[in-house]
Amino acid sequence: MNLYYMKCIIIYNNIRIIRGVHLVAVESAFPRARVIPSDDVIGRHGFLEHLEERLYFGDSIMLAGPRRIGKTSIANEALRQLQKRGCLTLQLDLLHIVSIENFAIQVYKQIASLHTGKLQSAFHSLRDIVIWLSRSEWSLEYGDFRFNTKLPGDSTVEPLEALENAFELVEKVAKKRDKRLVFLLDEFQEVERIGGSSLLNALRTVFQHQENTTYLFLGSEPSLMKTIFADRRRAFYSFATMLHLPAIEVDEWETYTLKKLQKFNMTMDAQAIHVVFDITGGHPHGMMAALLNAFLIVKQENQPIINPSTVEMAVVQTLEQFDPIYEELWKHILPISKADQILIAIAFDEPPYRGQTPTYVKRAIDFLIKNSIIYRSSRGRYQFVEPLFKRWIIEKNG
Ligand SMILES: Nc1ncnc2c1ncn2[C@@H]1O[C@H](COP(=O)(O)OP(=O)(O)OP(=O)(O)O)[C@@H](O)[C@H]1O
Ligand SMILES: [Mg+2]
């Protein structure tokens, strides 16, 4: 076998074979705080199929949930599956959008990517886009398409009009190609900041006429998302079906973890997985962070197995790493009268109303729920969205 042929096999298998020893080439251990590849998407399979099916058949979806719960991960997996079914997919994170004009430019970049397969970086202004659109291939393909009243080369395009036209063009492309197009708009609650009610009204007016384009709206501020989609007075009232992201079960974590560790000739004590799950409450980001730390600890010690004591060390490390995040969260809570004391009481499983003025308690609890720090469980008790934060509070106040 010549060297070139061997290299091809090596690249194809994504594996390095050196003197008969199989080494995993680029294998991430436990991916944390980033968009995860398909193989690392754990559980939620029924939900994923349901989400995919609804989007495929033209139903727009709103999915809201606290930070780091897995919204973007599941949405990206849905898009990957939809692409396999022949859909066109686009996505935009509104967190980085600074103005309506910038929003329009980003949507045009997305449209351009449908043609080129990559995001055009040459667009810096609406004027660049007008020039780009006037190029013959676009005029030929989309015939009558123009910014409604402006001529190519005109530098005074209204940002809102440009944005409306951008979303109209999205639908035109989908129609022309006779495809379903699914557009993921992440951190959608940011529309309020970008353009307020008038932007929402304008988007709704365009979206409601679209047949081939469906939207997946994600939001990490559930209360704001609820207001946008459930308030009768708002433009997006009832526009999208609101779904709830289910939890990832402990046995799903177990299957994934064992399979992942096997790739590194490692394993994990079944009890140890349950310990991580209990401490993190199965919160995906906390789980991944703790598992990664446990993995690195045993790797460093050249041990083949993660046991409960490794997990304890890993949790301590995880809390140290999360400390700046939780400090910031705490600073956000402090200005709300009594909220810190009430949260400490909940962390220690004590009744939050004891010795407190009911109006303060109610106001503080409303704030904590609205900010996805706690939620009311089915048994009427308050629970932490992130049990690691509960542990952090206990350790600070223990
Ligand atoms: N289904 C999943 N399987 C495995 N890990 C997951 C899953 N969902 C989330 N995670 C883990 O949690 C991390 C955060 O997930 P993700 O970014 O999808 O959450 P999010 O809800 O979109 O967060 P944010 O509110 O910050 O946008 C991921 O990088 C990954 O480590
Ligand atoms: Mg996200």
Description:
It is a single chain. This protein is an alpha/beta fold and 398 residues long. It folds into two domains: 44-243, P-loop containing nucleotide triphosphate hydrolases (Rossmann fold); 250-397, no CATH class. It has helices at residues 3-13, 45-56, 71-84, 100-116, 126-133, 136-142, 159-176, 191-207, 222-230, 250-262, 270-280, 284-300, 308-333, 339-347, 358-370, 387-397; strands spanning 15-18, 21-24, 61-64, 88-93, 181-186, 213-219, 241-243, 267-268, 305-306, 374-376, 382-384. A five-stranded parallel beta sheet has the order 4-5-6-3-7, with helices on both faces. Helix 7 (159-176) crosses helix 8. The chain binds adenosine-5'-triphosphate (ATP) and magnesium ion.
Which radius of gyration do the C-alpha atoms yield? 25 Å
Quantity of strands, as a count = 11
Instruction: Give the % helix.
Output: 40-55%
CATH class membership of the largest domain: Alpha Beta
User: How large is the count of helical segments?
Assistant: 16
Strand content: 5-15%
User: Residue ranges: pLDDT <50 for 5 or more in a row?
Assistant: 1-24, 145-153
Averaged pLDDT, please? 86
Structural class comes to alpha/beta
Shape field: globular
CATH fold group of the largest domain: Rossmann fold
- CATH superfamily grouping of the largest domain: P-loop containing nucleotide triphosphate hydrolases
The spatial strand order of the largest sheet comes to 4-5-6-3-7
Distinct ligands, ions and cofactors found in the model: adenosine-5'-triphosphate, magnesium ion
